[in-house]
Amino acid sequence: MWLIFLLLIIVPFIPYSKQSISPEDISSVTEVLSSDFLTQGPKIEDFENELSEYFDVKHAVCCSSGTSALHLSYASLGVGEKSIGIVPAITFAATANAFRYQGARVIFCDVEPETGNLCLNSLEEILQQISPKQKDEVNLISPVSFAGCVGPLDECKKLAAMHDFKIVEDASHSTGAWKKTQDDELITSGSCKYTDASCLSFHPVKHLCCGEGGAILTNSSHLAEKSRNLRSHGISRPYSEDHPTPWFYEQLELGWNYRMTDLQATLGISQLSRLDHFLNQRTKLASRYDQYFAEKRFSEHIIRPVFEKGHAWHLYIIRFKKEGFRDMAHKYLKSKGIGSQIHYLPVYRHPYYEGIYGRIRLPGAETFYSGCLSIPLYCDLMEKDQDRVVEELYNFLTSEM
Description:
Elements: H1 2-10, H2 23-33, H3 42-55, E1 59-63, H4 66-76, E2 84-88, H5 94-101, E3 105-109, H6 120-129, E4 140-141, H7 153-163, E5 166-170, E6 178-180, E7 186-188, E8 197-201, E9 214-218, H8 221-230, E10 235-236, E11 250-251, H9 262-272, H10 275-293, H11 296-299, E12 302-303, E13 316-320, H12 325-335, H13 351-357, H14 363-371, E14 372-375, H15 383-400
Helix pairs in contact: 2-9, 3-9, 4-5, 4-8, 6-7
């Protein structure tokens, strides 16, 4: 124990991810601290306008977290206790939890074992098994653009249209990501071209850091208005110059306190101005990892992620070929002062969901989960620290061979 403690003092700890904060970011927050508004002030609308412009959507609704963005979008679309929410098994629990907040039934879709993204064959099977009576309800598919790779949004849209499902993209991992279809059509994460809404997260490990925060992107005026109302207790303030009581407000429905603050919004505006830089840095670092892991000394034991252009590289996930190596590598790297993480334990394995739906095992999700390890990747990761990560991974492999 003391040896590990001394090692961390001598050799700086390398986290699996962290935020990149610039002097401009700090200055923008300081400026707001000196202003008249700290909570729901003018910076919220400014940030929403800039998000709308960047993602080329009609509306952006900022809120307190990525989870609240999911919850608000599901609720605004009409998801209720009789609804079904389909989510990929490999995701953070919030994608499913937001359905449970509305009392909806969650069905877990399998994923592609190579990428962790939603499996269309599994989705089609689920949709075909849902009874016609159930389809009278507001039902929803929430594909996750996992790890920075745009999910199969166009194909999900085709299936959703056939079965009268709505779609909300969980785009928490994929800010700035894009891909092209086989017909050379551009699909951008967050554009809402194939979805009713897309949800962003501004947690510190994400592409844009607001401390906490999230946003709903949509081209639906109704969904945007409904979400804005629900994020602030369901309260309406119908103020106008002609109103006899300018102070008047009324609660129209049961909402939540999911508001973003001006402090978060101004940080988000500053961060958004550097998003292209963040994406370029992440791509550069991912390419360096690619070169290392393509070497035979690694390729015999590790499967590296292989993606086309447009990947946003929220995570760099390697997969170990030999059973048990993932957890051993995680512990070994930790002992060397290097952070790593597992993304994710399949959501259906959590005790809460097992208590509701029983034991579930999906082959693609189990295969991906059994070997996946997210290694350090963030904008400010130094190349010498990246080299240290690779060196220690090699040391681990040679010690276990």
